[in-house]
Design a protein that fits this description.
The structure holds two protein chains of two kinds.
Chain A: E1 15-23, E2 28-35, E3 41-49, H1 54-57, H2 66-70, H3 78-90, H4 100-132, H5 143-149, H6 151-172, E4 181-182, E5 185-186, H7 192-222, H8 224-229, E6 236-241, E7 253-257, E8 263-268, H9 273-276, E9 277-280, E10 289-292, H10 296-299, E11 302-303, H11 306-312, H12 319-332, H13 342-362, E12 381-388, E13 391-399, E14 405-411, H14 413-416, H15 418-433, H16 440-453, H17 455-459, E15 469-474, E16 480-486, E17 492-494
Parallel strand pairs in A: 6-11
Antiparallel strand pairs in A: 1-2, 1-15, 2-3, 4-5, 6-7, 7-8, 9-10, 12-13, 13-14, 15-16, 16-17
Helix pairs in contact in A: 3-4, 4-6, 4-13, 5-6, 6-7, 7-13, 11-13, 12-13, 15-16
Chain B: E1 6-9, E2 12-15, H1 22-28, E3 52-55, E4 58-61, E5 72-74, H2 78-94, H3 109-116, E6 133-134, E7 140-143, H4 152-161, E8 166-169, E9 176-179, E10 206-208
Parallel strand pairs in B: 1-5
Antiparallel strand pairs in B: 1-2, 3-4, 3-5, 6-7, 7-10, 8-9
The chains are: A alpha+beta, B alpha+beta.
Chain lengths: 496, 238
């Protein structure tokens, strides 16, 4: 499954087109494309310039500070880091089993996070591409354009996200970067008033989430040629599933499947993730490339996130989302769906699942209990895994006898998806750029493929369709032949 | 209290008792003057200068200046608040104050005072000093990154606990908090969680271990109201 476009045979005579920056999680990424004189694509690489300072500067800090500190990795899914770190540190304080109140409040926080992040991704960042077309008028290809043309859709997106953020606020204390989860439990449970406030709106959220699934499903049915083939590539996939095989985004065991959907491994305790996964370093990228040890570097890379999770679980334990999962599986047929645009459909199914889970948790009185903390025999090492909105998130810590962190390893979903995103970009370059002059619309095709995996890449652009881009065409000797740039205001200009 | 013993603070009449400083009388009357090294339970130190006021037109530290009859004191004026903000900014850049991940957030006097005085940015270049964390003690942790040299722990340990666990060492910009042990480690002192010194730090230096972030957002000292409306617990009427 290794790409034929990763390294060109003779790069010295090719023109180099650079998209820099393609925004990424919190910083810069870029796409480099090598073309020959006839604009045929010979090499495509997605570079993500990811600064991983957290793993270093968390060392020497007290362990109870970690869940609050590491969530600053991200402004979109901080809850995922907050909870993955807490889960890892539960082992340090010996909390093998959380109290029901603690676990359910953490789950509530997590599903609020899934809901708001998925809503943000689909409605704010991706719906303009899907509703208007990838190379439609850039001036209208944004959330404001959606609000003008499809006001109900835009409004629902905003309110779904707002509801998810309110769930986070009530469980973590703040909409972004709260403190609700601590090693061994939580620092608060839901009050009756908070529960009632959320209950008032949750049924509407379930209904709107189901409509969102139907919207994206309709897109697939209307244009299967595009949706089934855009940037499509075959890959292994991995996610955490519940102990019963059902979808569980908070806790469970690791399961992996091959490109045909056959089980590669199952029931793996994530405490042993180092026996399962290794990371490769490539000299052209700042981000590592994880792969399954058992399959090796060439064949062992895999995909994570909604598209993997929905196809990896045996069932979804909430009724409406399960109906949608079955329809999704029936649509893709015997073989798994590998098309990147399928991520959106799967993501909306997960959003529906999250809304249903929130509803169920709000009807559970444990959510308002007073037993918040659990303790046990002190440990020195812990691994926490959670299914973050974008995929499997691994936190691993060691703590010394004085309570200070001595080792931290984080494998975030963007890292798991590194090779997969590269593959998608290569396929899109092959499908759409090959032999063509570069235009803004073609550049956006590459962004569309990236966005399908990781909205952090697109969210850093601040406004959809206005991602500042610079494309330089260099001669074989490296001299600049021409350049095209798009400003943050979305204006294209020739910068020769 | 004699009624003729009073002064005005920003135009309001403030009664005082013989021997009281301006800030003591102001706090007792429910008025706020920004401060960091002052704590009503301890003798004034006069080092942070946040509490500087204009008394009869001259700047003075209100924690050390005794109240006088008929004195005209100005505190909440742009001139002084601008200077206080600069003092705060210098404190922030001189140490490593990362509020987003600090367990003292919401309970921190430095942070609350910065909010009170509308400090929007550190303004100056960060020093980013390399300071260690002393986690040697079984129950308490010292994070020197956040020390503002208020000396409250020094005074508490010396004057209340009778232990002299802490001291300020060095001069000028090299001043720093030290632990009075040959090894320099807290574990090698007779420091105890029941000491007064364990509970006076206005910032996040002296911390009880393993309880960080146990108080949820919304229930922390300065969550509900600003520091100017949060009386010190030891002040009458709090």
């Amino acid at each position: 499954m290794s790409s034929t476009l990763e390294t060109a045979a003779h790069p010295e005579n090719l023109r180099r087109v650079v998209i820099d920056p393609v925004s990424r999680v919190e910083g810069h990424g870029k796409v480099t494309i090598l073309l020959d004189d006839k604009n045929k694509v010979h090499q495509v690489r997605l570079h993500i310039v990811e600064f991983r300072g957290f793993e270093k500067f968390i060392q020497g800090r007290p362990y109870w500070e970690v869940p609050v500190m590491v969530q600053r990795l991200c402004g979109i899914c901080p809850v995922s880091h907050h909870l993955a770190a807490s889960k890892a540190l539960d082992a340090i304080v010996g909390a093998k089993h959380l109290t029901p109140t603690a676990e359910k409040n953490r789950r509530l926080m997590h599903y609020g996070q899934i809901l708001q992040s998925h809503a943000l991704h689909f409605f704010h960042l991706c719906s303009p591409d899907l509703l208007f077309g990838f190379d439609s008028d850039v001036a209208k290809r944004n959330i404001i354009g959606v609000a003008e043309k499809h006001p109900d859709t835009a409004k629902r997106g905003v309110l779904l996200r707002k509801f998810g953020q309110e769930v986070i606020r009530h469980t973590a204390g703040k909409r972004v970067h709260g403190t609700g989860s601590v090693p061994g439990g939580v620092n608060k449970s839901l009050s009756v008033d908070e529960r009632d406030t959320l209950l008032k709106d949750v049924y509407q959220m379930v209904s709107w989430s189901r409509d969102a699934v139907h919207l994206v499903k309709e897109m697939h049915h209307k244009n299967p040629e595009l949706y089934n083939s855009f940037g499509a590539f075959r890959a292994n996939y991995m996610s955490m599933v519940g102990f019963d095989g059902g979808m569980d985004l908070y806790h469970g065991r690791l399961r992996g499947r091959d490109e045909n959907g056959q089980i590669l491994f199952d029931g793996v305790d994530y405490q042993n993730y180092t026996q399962l996964i290794e990371e490769e370093v490539k000299n052209w990228s700042y981000m590592k490339f994880p792969y399954l040890k058992s399959l090796g570097k060439e064949k062992g890379w895999y995909r994570v996130g909604p598209l993997s999770r929905v196809q990896n679980c045996d069932f979804i334990p909430t009724p409406l989302a399960e109906v949608e999962r079955r329809e999704f599986m029936a649509y893709s047929g015997v073989m798994p769906m590998h098309a990147p645009l399928g991520y959106h459909w799967a993501r909306m199914i997960e959003m529906l699942h999250a809304a249903e889970m929130i509803k169920d948790l709000l009807h559970d009185d444990d959510i308002m209990g007073s037993e918040l903390m659990a303790t046990g025999e002190r440990g020195s090492e812990g691994v926490g895994v959670i299914e973050a909105p974008r995929g499997t998130l691994i936190h691993h810590y060691r703590v010394d006898e004085n309570d200070l962190v001595t080792m931290c390893n984080l494998i975030v979903s963007t890292t798991h998806n590194n090779q997969a995103m590269n593959e998608a970009v290569r396929r899109v370059a092959q499908q759409y750029l090959h032999g063509h002059e570069i235009t803004e619309g073609l550049l956006n095709h590459i962004e569309v493929a990236i966005r399908a995996f990781d909205p952090c890449l697109s969210c850093a652009t601040h406004a959809l369709g206005k991602m500042p881009l610079e494309v330089e065409v260099l001669g074989g000797a490296g001299e600049r032949l021409s350049a095209l740039s798009r400003s943050s205001a979305g204006v294209l200009c020739n910068t020769d | 209290m004699s009624q003729d013993k009073s002064f005005t603070l920003d135009g309001k009449t403030v009664p005082y008792q013989e021997g009281q400083t301006i800030i003591q009388a102001a706090m007792a009357a429910g008025h706020y003057i920004p401060h960091l090294c002052f704590n009503p339970e301890f003798k004034p130190h006069g080092s942070c200068k946040l509490c500087t006021v204009k008394a009869n037109g001259r700047q003075t530290a209100s924690c050390t200046q005794q109240a006088q009859p008929g004195m005209v004191v100005e505190s909440d004026i742009n001139e002084l608040n601008d200077e206080r903000r600069v003092l705060l900014q210098m404190l922030f850049v001189e140490g490593n104050h990362f509020c987003p991940s600090c367990e003292k957030s919401g309970n921190c006097q430095l942070q609350a005072t910065a909010y009170e005085l509308d400090m929007m940015s550190p303004h100056f270049d960060q020093f980013f000093p390399d300071r260690p964390v002393d986690a040697s003690h079984a129950e308490y942790l010292l994070d020197f990154n956040r020390c503002i040299l208020c000396s409250l722990c020094v005074r508490a340990s010396r004057d209340v606990d009778g232990k002299n666990v802490f001291a300020l060492s060095g001069r000028g910009i090299k001043s720093h908090l030290i632990v009075n042990a040959k090894s320099g480690h807290l574990a090698d002192t007779d420091f105890s969680g029941s000491d007064k010194a364990a509970h006076v730090c206005p910032v996040g230096v002296i911390l009880k271990k393993r309880v960080g972030f146990s108080v949820p957002i919304g229930q922390r000292t300065f969550d509900a109201q600003p520091i100017s409306a949060t009386p010190h617990p030891k002040v009458k009427g709090a």
